[in-house]
Amino acid sequence: MKNSIKEKYFKFKEINLYLFGLNFFSNFDLAKIFLGVMIGCLIIDVFYYKEKLECGNNKLRNFLIFLVLGGTIWNFCADFNYRAARAYLKINRYAIIVFYLYSLVKNNKIILRNFIISLTISYITLVIRGINFYFIENKRNRFGSFEGIMDVAVLVAVVGAFCFGNIIKFKELRYKLLNGIILFFTIFLLIITQTRAALLAFVVGVMGMLLFNRNIKVIITSCILGGFLLFGFLQTPYSTRFKSNTFNAKVTLNNMSNGIRVEMWKNAIWRFKQHPIMGSGTKQDDKLYREYVNNMPEETEVQRVYKQAFKEGFDDAHNMYFNSLTDNGLFLVVQLIFIFGILPYILLKNSEYLYSLGVMGGLISYYTFGVAWPIWRHGWDPMLFWLMVSFVCCSIEFKSGV
Question: Among 3, 83, 225, 258, which one is least packed by beta carbons within 10 Å?
Answer without folding.
Answer: 3
